[in-house]
Amino acid sequence: MSEENLKEKIIIDNFIKNSIPIDENNTDKQCQNLEKFVEKYNDKIDYKYLLDKEKNQLTKNEVTDFTIRNFQSNIFEENSSIISTTIKSNMYKTEKKYNKLFIFLITVNASLSYLFIGFNIGVTDTLQDNFKALYNWTDAEEKYYLSLINSLLSLGALCGALFLSPILLKKGRRFSIFVGNFIGLFGCALLNILLEELMIIGRFFIGVTIGLLTTCVGIYVKEYVPYEIIGMCGSIYELNFSIGIFFSYFLGLNLPTNEEIKINPNNNWWRFMLTAPAVFLVFSNLIFFFHFKKETPFFLYINKKDYTNSEKALKEIYYQNSDIIKILKDYNNLSENREADIKFMDLFTKKYKKRFLVGLMLLFTQQACGIDGFLMYSNSLFKQSVKDDKTASLLTNCSGLFLIFSGITTLLIIEKLGRKLILIIGQIIMIFLLLLLAYFYFIEKFEFVIYLLIGYIYVNGVSLSPVSFIYAADVLPEVGMGICMALNNICSFIITEFFMYAMSSCLGTYGLMLIFAFFILLNLFSTIFFLKETKDLSSDEIDKMYTPTKIEPFLNN
Protein backbone atom coordinates (compact mmCIF):
# COMPACT_ATOMS: atom_id res chain seq x y z
CA MET A 1 0.00 0.00 0.00
CA SER A 2 1.41 3.41 -0.97
CA GLU A 3 1.99 6.12 1.66
CA GLU A 4 -0.73 8.30 0.12
CA ASN A 5 -3.25 5.46 0.12
CA LEU A 6 -2.31 4.59 3.67
CA LYS A 7 -3.08 8.15 4.77
CA GLU A 8 -6.45 8.03 3.04
CA LYS A 9 -7.20 4.72 4.73
CA ILE A 10 -6.38 6.26 8.14
CA ILE A 11 -8.72 9.19 7.38
CA ILE A 12 -11.51 6.78 6.47
CA ASP A 13 -10.91 4.64 9.58
CA ASN A 14 -10.94 7.68 11.83
CA PHE A 15 -14.12 8.93 10.23
CA ILE A 16 -15.84 5.61 10.75
CA LYS A 17 -14.65 5.36 14.35
CA ASN A 18 -15.07 8.91 15.59
CA SER A 19 -17.17 11.17 13.42
CA ILE A 20 -20.62 9.80 14.18
CA PRO A 21 -21.26 10.18 17.91
CA ILE A 22 -24.00 8.12 19.46
CA ASP A 23 -25.22 11.02 21.59
CA GLU A 24 -28.40 12.37 20.01
CA ASN A 25 -27.67 15.83 21.51
CA ASN A 26 -24.39 16.03 19.56
CA THR A 27 -25.89 16.01 16.06
CA ASP A 28 -24.37 19.42 15.15
CA LYS A 29 -20.84 18.13 15.65
CA GLN A 30 -21.82 14.93 13.87
CA CYS A 31 -22.96 16.80 10.77
CA GLN A 32 -19.95 19.14 10.84
CA ASN A 33 -17.64 16.15 10.69
CA LEU A 34 -19.73 14.68 7.92
CA GLU A 35 -19.56 17.93 5.90
CA LYS A 36 -15.75 18.01 6.27
CA PHE A 37 -15.57 14.47 4.97
CA VAL A 38 -17.91 15.30 2.09
CA GLU A 39 -15.86 18.40 1.22
CA LYS A 40 -12.71 16.29 0.84
CA TYR A 41 -14.42 13.51 -1.13
CA ASN A 42 -17.22 15.45 -2.81
CA ASP A 43 -16.57 13.85 -6.20
CA LYS A 44 -16.64 10.34 -4.80
CA ILE A 45 -19.64 10.17 -2.51
CA ASP A 46 -23.37 10.33 -2.99
CA TYR A 47 -23.52 12.86 -0.16
CA LYS A 48 -26.80 14.56 -1.06
CA TYR A 49 -28.75 11.80 0.67
CA LEU A 50 -26.60 12.05 3.78
CA LEU A 51 -26.96 15.81 4.15
CA ASP A 52 -30.68 15.81 3.39
CA LYS A 53 -31.42 13.27 6.10
CA GLU A 54 -32.99 14.62 9.27
CA LYS A 55 -30.15 15.18 11.73
CA ASN A 56 -31.69 13.17 14.54
CA GLN A 57 -32.22 10.15 12.27
CA LEU A 58 -28.71 9.91 10.83
CA THR A 59 -27.23 6.58 11.93
CA LYS A 60 -23.71 5.28 11.74
CA ASN A 61 -24.76 2.28 9.67
CA GLU A 62 -26.37 4.53 7.06
CA VAL A 63 -23.32 6.82 6.79
CA THR A 64 -20.84 3.99 6.39
CA ASP A 65 -23.20 2.17 4.03
CA PHE A 66 -23.59 5.10 1.64
CA THR A 67 -19.95 6.11 1.94
CA ILE A 68 -18.61 2.68 1.12
CA ARG A 69 -21.09 1.99 -1.68
CA ASN A 70 -20.25 5.19 -3.54
CA PHE A 71 -16.54 5.56 -2.82
CA GLN A 72 -14.74 4.43 -5.98
CA SER A 73 -11.05 5.25 -5.44
CA ASN A 74 -8.28 2.76 -6.12
CA ILE A 75 -7.75 2.24 -2.42
CA PHE A 76 -10.96 0.20 -2.30
CA GLU A 77 -10.08 -1.84 -5.36
CA GLU A 78 -6.51 -2.59 -4.27
CA ASN A 79 -7.05 -3.14 -0.56
CA SER A 80 -10.67 -4.23 -0.31
CA SER A 81 -10.13 -7.07 2.16
CA ILE A 82 -8.20 -4.88 4.62
CA ILE A 83 -10.76 -2.08 4.50
CA SER A 84 -13.65 -4.55 4.69
CA THR A 85 -12.20 -6.02 7.89
CA THR A 86 -11.66 -2.58 9.39
CA ILE A 87 -15.17 -1.41 8.55
CA LYS A 88 -16.84 -4.56 9.83
CA SER A 89 -14.86 -4.47 13.07
CA ASN A 90 -15.79 -0.86 13.78
CA MET A 91 -19.42 -0.81 12.71
CA TYR A 92 -21.99 -1.47 15.39
CA LYS A 93 -25.46 -2.83 14.91
CA THR A 94 -28.16 -0.20 14.97
CA GLU A 95 -30.75 -1.50 17.37
CA LYS A 96 -34.04 -1.78 15.56
CA LYS A 97 -36.91 -1.09 17.91
CA TYR A 98 -39.75 -3.25 16.70
CA ASN A 99 -42.95 -4.59 18.22
CA LYS A 100 -41.76 -7.99 19.43
CA LEU A 101 -45.19 -9.10 20.65
CA PHE A 102 -46.82 -8.32 17.29
CA ILE A 103 -44.08 -10.20 15.40
CA PHE A 104 -44.33 -13.18 17.75
CA LEU A 105 -48.12 -13.38 17.44
CA ILE A 106 -48.16 -13.07 13.65
CA THR A 107 -45.48 -15.76 13.34
CA VAL A 108 -47.25 -18.13 15.74
CA ASN A 109 -50.58 -17.64 13.97
CA ALA A 110 -49.10 -18.40 10.54
CA SER A 111 -47.27 -21.40 11.97
CA LEU A 112 -50.43 -22.96 13.43
CA SER A 113 -50.62 -24.56 9.99
CA TYR A 114 -47.41 -26.41 10.81
CA LEU A 115 -49.09 -28.06 13.80
CA PHE A 116 -51.59 -29.41 11.26
CA ILE A 117 -48.81 -30.52 8.89
CA GLY A 118 -46.78 -32.27 11.58
CA PHE A 119 -49.84 -34.03 12.99
CA ASN A 120 -50.79 -35.43 9.58
CA ILE A 121 -47.23 -36.59 8.91
CA GLY A 122 -47.25 -38.70 12.07
CA VAL A 123 -50.86 -39.81 12.44
CA THR A 124 -50.89 -42.71 9.93
CA ASP A 125 -47.92 -44.32 11.68
CA THR A 126 -49.93 -44.22 14.91
CA LEU A 127 -53.16 -45.47 13.32
CA GLN A 128 -51.79 -48.21 11.05
CA ASP A 129 -52.84 -51.12 13.29
CA ASN A 130 -56.31 -49.61 13.80
CA PHE A 131 -56.76 -49.13 10.05
CA LYS A 132 -55.92 -52.78 9.51
CA ALA A 133 -58.64 -53.85 11.95
CA LEU A 134 -61.24 -51.28 10.80
CA TYR A 135 -60.86 -52.09 7.11
CA ASN A 136 -60.13 -55.83 7.58
CA TRP A 137 -56.89 -55.60 5.60
CA THR A 138 -54.59 -58.52 5.06
CA ASP A 139 -50.86 -58.01 5.68
CA ALA A 140 -50.27 -57.40 1.96
CA GLU A 141 -53.21 -54.96 1.77
CA GLU A 142 -51.95 -53.14 4.87
CA LYS A 143 -48.54 -52.52 3.29
CA TYR A 144 -50.15 -51.44 -0.01
CA TYR A 145 -52.72 -49.05 1.48
CA LEU A 146 -50.38 -47.50 4.04
CA SER A 147 -47.80 -46.79 1.34
CA LEU A 148 -50.55 -45.35 -0.88
CA ILE A 149 -52.04 -43.18 1.87
CA ASN A 150 -48.64 -41.75 2.81
CA SER A 151 -47.40 -41.27 -0.75
CA LEU A 152 -50.64 -39.54 -1.78
CA LEU A 153 -49.92 -36.99 0.93
CA SER A 154 -46.66 -36.21 -0.89
CA LEU A 155 -48.35 -36.27 -4.32
CA GLY A 156 -50.94 -33.76 -3.12
CA ALA A 157 -48.17 -31.62 -1.65
CA LEU A 158 -46.44 -31.67 -5.03
CA CYS A 159 -49.59 -30.36 -6.72
CA GLY A 160 -50.07 -27.72 -4.03
CA ALA A 161 -46.51 -26.43 -4.27
CA LEU A 162 -46.07 -26.62 -8.06
CA PHE A 163 -49.48 -25.64 -9.44
CA LEU A 164 -51.57 -23.95 -6.76
CA SER A 165 -49.06 -21.84 -4.82
CA PRO A 166 -47.84 -19.76 -7.83
CA ILE A 167 -51.45 -18.78 -8.58
CA LEU A 168 -52.48 -17.96 -5.02
CA LEU A 169 -49.25 -16.17 -4.06
CA LYS A 170 -50.01 -13.55 -6.70
CA LYS A 171 -53.22 -12.81 -4.81
CA GLY A 172 -51.39 -12.48 -1.52
CA ARG A 173 -49.42 -14.39 1.10
CA ARG A 174 -52.10 -14.12 3.79
CA PHE A 175 -54.75 -15.04 1.23
CA SER A 176 -52.78 -18.16 0.20
CA ILE A 177 -52.54 -19.42 3.79
CA PHE A 178 -56.23 -18.65 4.33
CA VAL A 179 -57.26 -20.73 1.27
CA GLY A 180 -54.82 -23.52 2.14
CA ASN A 181 -56.38 -23.86 5.58
CA PHE A 182 -59.86 -24.31 4.05
CA ILE A 183 -58.60 -27.04 1.72
CA GLY A 184 -57.13 -28.82 4.75
CA LEU A 185 -60.48 -28.65 6.58
CA PHE A 186 -62.18 -30.29 3.60
CA GLY A 187 -59.60 -33.09 3.61
CA CYS A 188 -60.13 -33.72 7.34
CA ALA A 189 -63.90 -34.03 6.80
CA LEU A 190 -63.37 -36.75 4.17
CA LEU A 191 -61.11 -38.78 6.47
CA ASN A 192 -63.93 -39.28 8.97
CA ILE A 193 -65.98 -41.41 6.57
CA LEU A 194 -65.07 -45.10 6.82
CA LEU A 195 -64.48 -45.67 3.11
CA GLU A 196 -61.05 -46.45 1.68
CA GLU A 197 -61.70 -44.32 -1.42
CA LEU A 198 -62.59 -41.24 0.66
CA MET A 199 -59.61 -41.85 2.93
CA ILE A 200 -57.35 -41.73 -0.14
CA ILE A 201 -59.02 -38.58 -1.54
CA GLY A 202 -58.93 -36.89 1.86
CA ARG A 203 -55.21 -37.56 2.26
CA PHE A 204 -54.60 -36.11 -1.19
CA PHE A 205 -56.39 -32.86 -0.28
CA ILE A 206 -54.46 -32.65 2.98
CA GLY A 207 -51.31 -33.09 0.89
CA VAL A 208 -52.36 -30.15 -1.30
CA THR A 209 -52.68 -28.09 1.87
CA ILE A 210 -49.22 -29.17 3.03
CA GLY A 211 -47.59 -28.27 -0.30
CA LEU A 212 -49.29 -24.89 -0.38
CA LEU A 213 -48.59 -23.98 3.25
CA THR A 214 -44.96 -25.10 3.33
CA THR A 215 -44.37 -22.78 0.37
CA CYS A 216 -46.42 -19.82 1.58
CA VAL A 217 -45.83 -19.69 5.35
CA GLY A 218 -42.06 -19.31 4.96
CA ILE A 219 -42.52 -16.47 2.45
CA TYR A 220 -45.13 -14.79 4.67
CA VAL A 221 -42.92 -14.89 7.77
CA LYS A 222 -39.83 -13.78 5.85
CA GLU A 223 -41.63 -10.75 4.41
CA TYR A 224 -43.20 -9.68 7.69
CA VAL A 225 -40.52 -9.99 10.36
CA PRO A 226 -37.26 -7.96 10.69
CA TYR A 227 -34.47 -9.73 8.84
CA GLU A 228 -32.30 -9.96 11.99
CA ILE A 229 -34.74 -12.49 13.50
CA ILE A 230 -36.01 -14.30 10.39
CA GLY A 231 -34.12 -17.44 11.38
CA MET A 232 -35.53 -17.39 14.90
CA CYS A 233 -39.09 -16.86 13.66
CA GLY A 234 -38.61 -19.58 11.04
CA SER A 235 -37.60 -21.91 13.84
CA ILE A 236 -40.97 -21.27 15.51
CA TYR A 237 -42.98 -22.83 12.69
CA GLU A 238 -40.51 -25.72 12.45
CA LEU A 239 -40.94 -26.19 16.22
CA ASN A 240 -44.72 -26.30 15.72
CA PHE A 241 -44.18 -29.00 13.09
CA SER A 242 -42.37 -31.10 15.70
CA ILE A 243 -45.09 -30.46 18.29
CA GLY A 244 -47.73 -31.57 15.77
CA ILE A 245 -45.91 -34.87 15.20
CA PHE A 246 -45.60 -35.44 18.95
CA PHE A 247 -49.33 -34.77 19.46
CA SER A 248 -50.18 -37.41 16.86
CA TYR A 249 -47.95 -39.93 18.64
CA PHE A 250 -49.19 -38.98 22.12
CA LEU A 251 -52.90 -39.22 21.26
CA GLY A 252 -52.18 -42.64 19.80
CA LEU A 253 -51.48 -43.97 23.29
CA ASN A 254 -55.25 -43.94 23.89
CA LEU A 255 -56.04 -45.99 20.79
CA PRO A 256 -57.71 -49.37 21.33
CA THR A 257 -55.82 -52.52 20.41
CA ASN A 258 -56.88 -54.61 17.42
CA GLU A 259 -58.64 -57.07 19.75
CA GLU A 260 -60.53 -54.23 21.46
CA ILE A 261 -61.68 -52.90 18.08
CA LYS A 262 -63.07 -56.30 17.13
CA ILE A 263 -64.98 -56.43 20.41
CA ASN A 264 -66.17 -52.80 20.18
CA PRO A 265 -65.99 -51.56 16.58
CA ASN A 266 -67.84 -48.36 17.57
CA ASN A 267 -64.79 -46.90 19.33
CA ASN A 268 -64.32 -43.60 17.48
CA TRP A 269 -61.03 -42.40 18.94
CA TRP A 270 -59.49 -42.78 15.46
CA ARG A 271 -62.05 -40.26 14.14
CA PHE A 272 -61.07 -37.81 16.86
CA MET A 273 -57.41 -38.18 15.92
CA LEU A 274 -58.08 -37.51 12.24
CA THR A 275 -60.26 -34.47 13.07
CA ALA A 276 -58.18 -32.92 15.87
CA PRO A 277 -55.65 -31.07 13.67
CA ALA A 278 -58.49 -29.19 11.96
CA VAL A 279 -58.77 -27.08 15.13
CA PHE A 280 -55.40 -25.47 14.35
CA LEU A 281 -56.60 -24.38 10.91
CA VAL A 282 -59.88 -22.98 12.26
CA PHE A 283 -58.05 -20.88 14.87
CA SER A 284 -55.55 -19.63 12.32
CA ASN A 285 -58.23 -18.50 9.87
CA LEU A 286 -60.31 -16.82 12.58
CA ILE A 287 -57.28 -14.82 13.73
CA PHE A 288 -56.43 -13.90 10.13
CA PHE A 289 -60.03 -12.83 9.52
CA PHE A 290 -60.54 -10.72 12.66
CA HIS A 291 -57.06 -9.45 13.54
CA PHE A 292 -54.22 -9.84 11.02
CA LYS A 293 -56.05 -8.41 8.03
CA LYS A 294 -53.12 -6.90 6.09
CA GLU A 295 -50.87 -8.51 3.53
CA THR A 296 -47.12 -8.37 4.14
CA PRO A 297 -45.54 -4.92 3.67
CA PHE A 298 -43.12 -6.42 1.14
CA PHE A 299 -45.94 -7.84 -0.98
CA LEU A 300 -47.87 -4.56 -0.86
CA TYR A 301 -44.83 -2.56 -1.97
CA ILE A 302 -43.23 -4.89 -4.54
CA ASN A 303 -46.21 -6.74 -6.00
CA LYS A 304 -49.14 -4.38 -5.53
CA LYS A 305 -47.25 -1.04 -5.70
CA ASP A 306 -49.41 0.01 -2.75
CA TYR A 307 -46.82 2.21 -1.04
CA THR A 308 -49.24 3.79 1.44
CA ASN A 309 -50.51 0.53 2.93
CA SER A 310 -47.02 -0.94 2.86
CA GLU A 311 -45.84 1.91 5.08
CA LYS A 312 -48.89 1.43 7.35
CA ALA A 313 -48.04 -2.26 7.71
CA LEU A 314 -44.46 -1.39 8.61
CA LYS A 315 -45.68 1.02 11.30
CA GLU A 316 -47.30 -1.95 13.05
CA ILE A 317 -43.84 -3.53 13.27
CA TYR A 318 -41.38 -0.64 13.76
CA TYR A 319 -41.64 2.21 16.25
CA GLN A 320 -39.12 4.62 14.66
CA ASN A 321 -39.53 6.39 11.33
CA SER A 322 -35.81 5.96 10.58
CA ASP A 323 -36.25 2.17 10.54
CA ILE A 324 -39.31 2.41 8.29
CA ILE A 325 -37.45 4.71 5.88
CA LYS A 326 -34.56 2.24 5.67
CA ILE A 327 -36.86 -0.73 5.00
CA LEU A 328 -38.75 1.22 2.32
CA LYS A 329 -35.44 2.13 0.70
CA ASP A 330 -34.49 -1.57 0.63
CA TYR A 331 -37.86 -2.32 -0.98
CA ASN A 332 -37.27 0.41 -3.54
CA ASN A 333 -33.83 -0.99 -4.42
CA LEU A 334 -35.34 -4.44 -4.86
CA SER A 335 -38.20 -3.04 -6.92
CA GLU A 336 -35.77 -1.28 -9.27
CA ASN A 337 -33.52 -4.31 -9.71
CA ARG A 338 -36.17 -7.03 -9.82
CA GLU A 339 -38.07 -8.16 -12.87
CA ALA A 340 -41.81 -7.49 -12.75
CA ASP A 341 -42.71 -11.17 -12.98
CA ILE A 342 -39.94 -13.74 -12.49
CA LYS A 343 -40.43 -16.72 -14.81
CA PHE A 344 -39.00 -20.24 -14.61
CA MET A 345 -36.23 -19.52 -17.12
CA ASP A 346 -35.15 -16.47 -15.12
CA LEU A 347 -33.96 -18.86 -12.43
CA PHE A 348 -31.11 -19.89 -14.74
CA THR A 349 -29.84 -16.36 -15.26
CA LYS A 350 -26.71 -15.11 -13.48
CA LYS A 351 -28.78 -13.37 -10.82
CA TYR A 352 -30.66 -16.48 -9.62
CA LYS A 353 -28.87 -19.56 -10.97
CA LYS A 354 -26.46 -20.21 -8.10
CA ARG A 355 -28.94 -19.69 -5.29
CA PHE A 356 -31.62 -21.68 -7.14
CA LEU A 357 -29.33 -24.70 -7.52
CA VAL A 358 -28.29 -24.44 -3.87
CA GLY A 359 -31.98 -24.28 -2.86
CA LEU A 360 -32.81 -27.29 -5.07
CA MET A 361 -30.03 -29.32 -3.53
CA LEU A 362 -31.05 -28.36 0.01
CA LEU A 363 -34.74 -29.19 -0.34
CA PHE A 364 -34.02 -32.36 -2.30
CA THR A 365 -31.68 -33.60 0.44
CA GLN A 366 -34.13 -32.58 3.17
CA GLN A 367 -36.25 -35.50 1.92
CA ALA A 368 -33.51 -37.69 0.39
CA CYS A 369 -32.09 -38.09 3.91
CA GLY A 370 -35.17 -40.29 4.50
CA ILE A 371 -36.69 -38.24 7.30
CA ASP A 372 -40.32 -38.70 6.18
CA GLY A 373 -39.77 -42.45 6.12
CA PHE A 374 -38.34 -42.35 9.65
CA LEU A 375 -41.28 -40.27 10.92
CA MET A 376 -44.11 -42.03 9.07
CA TYR A 377 -42.84 -45.55 9.80
CA SER A 378 -41.07 -44.98 13.14
CA ASN A 379 -43.39 -47.44 14.86
CA SER A 380 -42.42 -50.18 12.40
CA LEU A 381 -38.71 -49.33 12.74
CA PHE A 382 -38.88 -49.58 16.53
CA LYS A 383 -40.83 -52.84 16.31
CA GLN A 384 -37.88 -54.32 14.44
CA SER A 385 -35.78 -53.66 17.53
CA VAL A 386 -38.10 -54.38 20.50
CA LYS A 387 -40.70 -56.83 19.06
CA ASP A 388 -43.34 -55.34 21.34
CA ASP A 389 -46.19 -53.03 20.30
CA LYS A 390 -46.46 -51.07 23.56
CA THR A 391 -42.72 -50.47 23.85
CA ALA A 392 -42.54 -49.47 20.19
CA SER A 393 -45.36 -46.97 20.77
CA LEU A 394 -43.56 -45.48 23.78
CA LEU A 395 -40.33 -45.20 21.77
CA THR A 396 -42.25 -43.48 18.98
CA ASN A 397 -43.51 -40.92 21.52
CA CYS A 398 -39.98 -40.54 22.83
CA SER A 399 -38.76 -39.69 19.32
CA GLY A 400 -41.57 -37.12 19.10
CA LEU A 401 -40.34 -35.50 22.33
CA PHE A 402 -36.81 -35.32 20.95
CA LEU A 403 -38.22 -33.64 17.85
CA ILE A 404 -39.64 -30.89 20.08
CA PHE A 405 -36.27 -30.55 21.85
CA SER A 406 -34.60 -30.25 18.45
CA GLY A 407 -36.95 -27.42 17.48
CA ILE A 408 -36.16 -25.56 20.71
CA THR A 409 -32.44 -26.07 20.08
CA THR A 410 -32.71 -24.57 16.61
CA LEU A 411 -34.65 -21.61 18.00
CA LEU A 412 -31.84 -20.90 20.48
CA ILE A 413 -28.82 -21.28 18.18
CA ILE A 414 -29.78 -20.26 14.66
CA GLU A 415 -29.19 -16.52 15.10
CA LYS A 416 -25.94 -17.18 16.96
CA LEU A 417 -24.31 -19.74 14.68
CA GLY A 418 -25.96 -18.91 11.35
CA ARG A 419 -27.49 -21.19 8.72
CA LYS A 420 -24.31 -22.50 7.09
CA LEU A 421 -22.47 -23.67 10.19
CA ILE A 422 -25.54 -25.47 11.57
CA LEU A 423 -26.04 -27.24 8.23
CA ILE A 424 -22.40 -28.33 7.99
CA ILE A 425 -22.15 -29.66 11.56
CA GLY A 426 -25.60 -31.29 11.40
CA GLN A 427 -24.94 -33.10 8.12
CA ILE A 428 -21.58 -34.44 9.30
CA ILE A 429 -23.23 -35.93 12.41
CA MET A 430 -26.15 -37.31 10.35
CA ILE A 431 -23.77 -39.12 7.97
CA PHE A 432 -21.92 -40.62 10.95
CA LEU A 433 -25.18 -41.81 12.55
CA LEU A 434 -26.44 -43.34 9.28
CA LEU A 435 -23.19 -45.28 8.82
CA LEU A 436 -23.55 -46.64 12.37
CA LEU A 437 -27.20 -47.53 11.69
CA ALA A 438 -26.23 -49.36 8.50
CA TYR A 439 -23.57 -51.32 10.40
CA PHE A 440 -25.81 -52.34 13.31
CA TYR A 441 -28.70 -53.23 11.00
CA PHE A 442 -26.30 -55.37 8.99
CA ILE A 443 -25.02 -57.28 12.04
CA GLU A 444 -28.55 -57.21 13.58
CA LYS A 445 -27.54 -55.58 16.86
CA PHE A 446 -30.90 -53.86 17.32
CA GLU A 447 -30.36 -52.72 20.91
CA PHE A 448 -28.09 -49.94 19.59
CA VAL A 449 -30.42 -49.04 16.74
CA ILE A 450 -33.02 -47.48 19.07
CA TYR A 451 -30.63 -44.79 20.33
CA LEU A 452 -29.21 -44.11 16.87
CA LEU A 453 -32.69 -43.66 15.36
CA ILE A 454 -33.72 -41.15 18.04
CA GLY A 455 -30.38 -39.39 17.72
CA TYR A 456 -30.75 -39.14 13.94
CA ILE A 457 -34.26 -37.70 14.22
CA TYR A 458 -33.01 -35.15 16.78
CA VAL A 459 -29.97 -33.99 14.76
CA ASN A 460 -32.04 -33.74 11.59
CA GLY A 461 -34.61 -31.68 13.51
CA VAL A 462 -31.90 -29.26 14.64
CA SER A 463 -30.17 -28.82 11.29
CA LEU A 464 -31.17 -30.08 7.86
CA SER A 465 -34.96 -30.10 8.11
CA PRO A 466 -35.64 -26.64 9.60
CA VAL A 467 -32.65 -24.73 8.20
CA SER A 468 -33.23 -25.94 4.61
CA PHE A 469 -36.69 -24.33 4.54
CA ILE A 470 -35.49 -21.17 6.30
CA TYR A 471 -32.56 -20.72 3.90
CA ALA A 472 -34.65 -21.41 0.80
CA ALA A 473 -37.16 -18.76 1.89
CA ASP A 474 -34.23 -16.37 2.47
CA VAL A 475 -32.75 -16.58 -1.02
CA LEU A 476 -35.41 -17.73 -3.50
CA PRO A 477 -38.14 -15.82 -5.34
CA GLU A 478 -41.66 -17.25 -5.30
CA VAL A 479 -41.35 -19.33 -8.46
CA GLY A 480 -38.02 -20.76 -7.25
CA MET A 481 -39.49 -21.66 -3.87
CA GLY A 482 -42.44 -23.37 -5.56
CA ILE A 483 -40.21 -25.50 -7.81
CA CYS A 484 -37.87 -26.45 -4.97
CA MET A 485 -40.86 -27.47 -2.83
CA ALA A 486 -42.18 -29.51 -5.77
CA LEU A 487 -38.88 -31.42 -5.96
CA ASN A 488 -38.99 -31.85 -2.19
CA ASN A 489 -42.44 -33.42 -2.44
CA ILE A 490 -41.50 -35.66 -5.38
CA CYS A 491 -38.68 -37.04 -3.28
CA SER A 492 -41.05 -37.42 -0.31
CA PHE A 493 -43.49 -39.34 -2.55
CA ILE A 494 -40.75 -41.79 -3.58
CA ILE A 495 -39.50 -42.25 -0.01
CA THR A 496 -42.93 -42.84 1.51
CA GLU A 497 -44.11 -45.11 -1.32
CA PHE A 498 -41.13 -47.45 -1.32
CA PHE A 499 -39.67 -47.17 2.20
CA MET A 500 -41.50 -50.22 3.58
CA TYR A 501 -40.86 -52.28 0.44
CA ALA A 502 -37.16 -51.41 0.47
CA MET A 503 -36.81 -52.47 4.10
CA SER A 504 -38.09 -55.96 3.31
CA SER A 505 -36.30 -56.29 -0.06
CA CYS A 506 -32.77 -57.50 -0.82
CA LEU A 507 -31.60 -53.91 -0.33
CA GLY A 508 -32.50 -54.13 3.35
CA THR A 509 -32.72 -51.41 5.97
CA TYR A 510 -28.93 -51.09 6.10
CA GLY A 511 -28.84 -50.44 2.34
CA LEU A 512 -31.37 -47.63 2.78
CA MET A 513 -29.17 -46.01 5.44
CA LEU A 514 -26.18 -46.00 3.06
CA ILE A 515 -28.24 -44.41 0.27
CA PHE A 516 -29.45 -41.66 2.61
CA ALA A 517 -25.86 -41.04 3.78
CA PHE A 518 -24.67 -40.70 0.16
CA PHE A 519 -27.23 -37.98 -0.64
CA ILE A 520 -26.36 -36.04 2.52
CA LEU A 521 -22.67 -36.23 1.62
CA LEU A 522 -23.38 -34.66 -1.79
CA ASN A 523 -25.32 -31.84 -0.16
CA LEU A 524 -22.56 -31.34 2.41
CA PHE A 525 -20.12 -30.48 -0.40
CA SER A 526 -22.70 -28.14 -1.92
CA THR A 527 -23.18 -26.45 1.46
CA ILE A 528 -19.45 -25.98 2.08
CA PHE A 529 -18.50 -24.64 -1.35
CA PHE A 530 -21.60 -22.89 -2.75
CA LEU A 531 -23.98 -21.87 0.04
CA LYS A 532 -23.54 -18.29 1.34
CA GLU A 533 -24.48 -17.20 4.83
CA THR A 534 -27.68 -15.09 5.03
CA LYS A 535 -27.82 -14.44 8.78
CA ASP A 536 -28.64 -10.77 9.55
CA LEU A 537 -28.99 -9.87 5.85
CA SER A 538 -31.97 -8.11 4.29
CA SER A 539 -33.49 -9.25 0.98
CA ASP A 540 -31.67 -6.41 -0.78
CA GLU A 541 -28.34 -7.46 0.75
CA ILE A 542 -28.91 -11.11 -0.19
CA ASP A 543 -29.63 -10.04 -3.77
CA LYS A 544 -26.38 -8.09 -3.87
CA MET A 545 -24.43 -10.93 -2.25
CA TYR A 546 -25.45 -13.33 -5.02
CA THR A 547 -25.02 -10.70 -7.77
CA PRO A 548 -22.07 -8.52 -6.60
CA THR A 549 -21.18 -5.31 -8.42
CA LYS A 550 -17.68 -4.26 -9.43
CA ILE A 551 -17.65 -1.42 -6.90
CA GLU A 552 -18.43 -3.47 -3.83
CA PRO A 553 -17.11 -7.01 -4.14
CA PHE A 554 -15.60 -6.86 -0.67
CA LEU A 555 -19.00 -6.44 0.99
CA ASN A 556 -19.72 -10.10 0.26
CA ASN A 557 -16.68 -11.42 2.13
In words, what does this structure look like?
Helix content is 78%, strand content 0%. It is mainly alpha-helical. It has three domains: 3-90, no CATH class; 100-293 and 349-545, Growth Hormone, Chain: A; 294-338. The two termini are 20 Å apart.
Features:
557 residues, 27 helices, single chain, 78% helix, mainly alpha, Growth Hormone, Chain: A
Written as H for each helix and E for each strand, in order along the chain, the element string is HHHHHHHHHHHHHHHHHHHHHHHHHHH
Number of domain units: 3
CATH homologous superfamily classification of the largest domain: MFS general substrate transporter like domains
**Proportion of helical residues:** over 70%
* Mean pLDDT level: 79
SSE topology:
Elements: H1 3-18, H2 27-40, H3 47-52, H4 60-70, H5 74-78, H6 80-90, H7 100-135, H8 139-171, H9 173-191, H10 196-224, H11 230-251, H12 258-263, H13 269-275, H14 278-290, H15 297-302, H16 307-315, H17 321-337, H18 353-368, H19 371-376, H20 378-386, H21 389-417, H22 419-443, H23 446-462, H24 464-475, H25 478-504, H26 508-530, H27 539-546
Helix pairs in contact: 1-6, 7-8, 7-10, 7-11, 7-14, 8-9, 8-10, 8-25, 9-10, 9-14, 10-11, 10-24, 10-25, 11-21, 11-24, 18-24, 18-25, 18-26, 20-21, 20-23, 21-22, 21-23, 22-23, 22-24, 22-26, 23-24, 25-26
